[in-house]
């Protein structure tokens, strides 16, 4: 009878215990919020972290089936942590709850590494496993550092270090390519910088950055974004401790790295990181209270050269236009806000107005009237008084049922010196109000249209005058027949009717001509106004 190795039996029992614990922990993660339940789970979790770390360092075999079960268990826990993170309740989470999720990620990472090492030997899998473990480990390290769980970060980076060394020894060009390998090494060294900084070992952090410096120039934009974010975290942390000089060193590094990327290749998150770094660098420069540093901060916020700013805004317009076409309005808004930054103000109000109006359009597309109004209120007067801006604000008034705003917009347009352009925009306002069934706004827009007709109006425009006046009178009558009108509104409508008839009489006396010199107010037109004026007068004489 074959002898049974007690060590092997004990090892197998512990591995089965890891799988069973993972299955037990998975459904408890979403519901464990009170301190008593999280503290109990944390104690069990730390015990199993110690177990899996110890087992993985001792020689032994694991069957492929068990290894796959381990791998699946680790993946399930990792994905559950991601789902919990996406619930965006981190601010309300207790410290023990946050630590539970961080430690769960550490446990799932260690289980995954152990499973992959147990499955090693399959053809072509060694490089893939190394890259997968490194990427997951670096993500884990960043989370642990942000949550100040430095023990977990050290343990995770310890595993990554081993695989970084292996990756250097592998001829993996057919799998990841040398460019990808440089990105991974640079990210690893930067994460070591972040950990050393958190440990207040700035000499080690500086040493790690020196090793990474030569690799940074080869980074792709995505990797550059992530590393710039990490360098910014180091600088911001130092600034928070009052070490502004050292903070400036790291923030300048972050600033140089993100600014070294082509703007159009940065992601939405990358643009946010870029703006955040710019802001933190300026704040830290000002915090030093040094005249030279204050001047440097002033230079950073000074407008760009016109040609540079125009070129940058041209690229931004292409990016936001593509996002807007895909209905990615939040992304388009971000591009607009970047383009409207003070640093690009040298391009002038025409360019700023274009981006500002697109920002309002994004708010309209999201039916967010408050955001649109807030944007409008922050604009320079010249952009506010642009006819297209007022047209957009009329559309905002429709989605917010703000009749005062709609009246202000059409009154402004009717008084514009560019009568022909204003008239076309007011026709568009009439159409917008009609489509939403807002009769009062439609009437206000029609009344404003009538104000744009003068003796100098073109013959083509003058030909439409009688029909515009008739539409306004008919619309007043329709509104009057609605039971919802109060006494004040009824009085206003009566005055509107009188004003429109008086305007018709004034224009008829001036005898405007249409194309080919034909009369605009023909005999049938005059007869219509005469009869309806009489009928309205008779029906309203008691009022």
UniProtKB/TrEMBL annotation:
Protein name: Protein ZIP4 homolog
Keyword presence, DNA-binding: no
Key words of the record: Meiosis
Example of a GO biological process term: regulation of synaptonemal complex assembly
Organism domain of life: Eukaryota
Origin species: Fusarium falciforme
InterPro entries, sorted: Spo22/ZIP4 (IPR039057), Spo22/ZIP4/TEX11 (IPR013940), TPR-like_helical_dom_sf (IPR011990)
């Amino acid at each position: 009878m074959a002898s049974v190795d007690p060590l092997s039996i004990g090892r197998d029992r512990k591995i089965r215990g890891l799988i069973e614990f993972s299955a037990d922990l998975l459904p408890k993660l979403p519901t464990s919020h009170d301190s008593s339940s999280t503290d109990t789970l944390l104690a069990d979790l730390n015990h199993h972290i110690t177990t899996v770390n110890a087992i993985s360092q001792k020689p032994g075999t694991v069957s492929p089936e068990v290894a796959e079960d381990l791998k699946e268990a680790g993946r399930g826990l990792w994905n559950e942590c991601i789902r919990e993170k996406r619930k965006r309740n981190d601010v309300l989470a207790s410290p023990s709850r946050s630590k539970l999720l961080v430690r769960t990620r550490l446990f799932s990472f260690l289980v995954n590494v152990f499973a992959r090492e147990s499955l090693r030997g399959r053809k072509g899998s060694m490089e893939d496993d190394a890259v997968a473990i490194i990427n997951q480990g670096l993500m884990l390290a960043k989370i642990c550092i942000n949550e100040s769980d430095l023990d977990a970060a050290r343990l995770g980076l310890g595993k990554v270090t081993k695989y970084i060394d292996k990756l250097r020894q592998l001829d993996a060009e057919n799998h990841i390519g040398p460019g990808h390998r440089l990105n991974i090494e640079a990210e690893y060294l930067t994460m070591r910088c972040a950990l050393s900084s958190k440990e207040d070992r700035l000499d080690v952090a500086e040493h790690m950055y020196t090793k990474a410096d030569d690799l940074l120039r080869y980074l792709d934009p995505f990797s550059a974004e992530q590393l710039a974010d990490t360098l910014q975290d180091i600088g911001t942390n130092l600034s928070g401790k009052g070490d502004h000089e050292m903070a400036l060193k790291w923030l300048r590094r972050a600033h140089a790295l993100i600014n070294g990327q082509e703007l159009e290749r940065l992601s939405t998150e990358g643009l946010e990181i870029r703006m955040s770094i710019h802001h933190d660098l300026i704040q830290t420069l000002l915090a030093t209270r040094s005249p030279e540093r204050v001047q440097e901060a002033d230079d950073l916020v000074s407008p760009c050269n016109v040609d540079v700013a125009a070129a940058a805004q041209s690229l931004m317009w292409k990016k936001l236009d593509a996002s807007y076409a895909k209905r990615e309005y939040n992304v388009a808004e971000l591009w607009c806000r970047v383009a409207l930054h003070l640093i690009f103000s040298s391009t002038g109000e025409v360019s700023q107005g274009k981006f500002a109006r697109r920002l309002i359009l994004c708010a309209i597309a999201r039916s967010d009237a408050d955001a649109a109004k807030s944007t409008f209120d922050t604009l320079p007067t010249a952009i506010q008084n642009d006819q297209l801006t007022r047209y957009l604000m009329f559309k905002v008034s429709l989605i917010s049922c703000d009749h005062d705003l709609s009246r202000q917009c059409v009154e402004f347009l009717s008084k514009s010196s560019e009568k022909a352009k204003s008239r076309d925009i007011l026709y568009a306002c009439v159409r917008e109000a009609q489509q939403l069934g807002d009769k009062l706004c439609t009437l206000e827009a029609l009344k404003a249209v009538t104000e744009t007709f003068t003796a100098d109006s073109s013959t083509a425009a003058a030909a439409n005058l009688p029909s515009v006046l008739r539409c306004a009178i008919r619309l007043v009558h329709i509104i009057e027949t609605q039971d919802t009108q109060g006494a004040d509104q009824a009085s206003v409508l009566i005055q509107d009717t009188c004003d429109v008839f008086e305007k018709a009489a004034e224009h008829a006396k001036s005898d405007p001509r249409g194309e080919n010199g034909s009369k605009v107010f023909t005999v049938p037109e005059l007869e219509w106004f005469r009869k309806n004026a009489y009928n309205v007068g008779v029906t309203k004489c008691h009022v």
